[in-house]
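name: query_chain
kind: protein
chains: 1
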Amino acid sequence: MSASPSPAIKFCGLTRREDVAAAVALGVDCVGFVFAARSPRRLDIDAARALRDAVPASVRLVALMMDDPASTVAEVVAAVAPDVLQFHGAEPDAFCAGFGLPYWKAIAMGGAPASALASLQAYPRAAAFLFDGHAAGEPGGGGQTFDWQALPRSLDRPFWLAGGLDAGNVAQAVATARPDGVDVSSGIERVPGHKDHARMRAFVEAVRGAR
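structure:
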């Protein structure tokens, strides 16, 4: 029997060109730029545009939004040309799907997991779900884990696992939840927005070695 493929890897909250280059060199599948107003990793349009050309076509660029007006999302789409939009707020399905791009809906698992999971049906057009450890109303990236066993055994769409992951726990997270992808931000940082290249490498090696 062949081994299951390793989950896809997304490095989120990148703010520096050297960190984008390191992520690309490590072969990650996605990088995330954060536009949520309350995030310490937030990029403005000019900074994001300056980083955009460091992301090759082989790596998907994900733009993270949270309760932004449609005009702001449209500006990000026009200026930065992300491949995917990721919504962390209370945006309804019709709003998320209204920008001509696939979207992922973040599900806040840090409060009441049962009610969080019940909300999945409200997003029929989501291309994927991202289960994060933060509480509802928070932007994510704070390093909180949650009970991975609370996740459903099967879903009709791909899902990503986020929240408090690092090189030390991601193999166990993968073994427990069997996600299609894993998303890391604070677990590969020295300070918010400044990635640690040794931690980035260790995270990738841990994911690729997970079973």
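note: The chain has one domain: 9-208.
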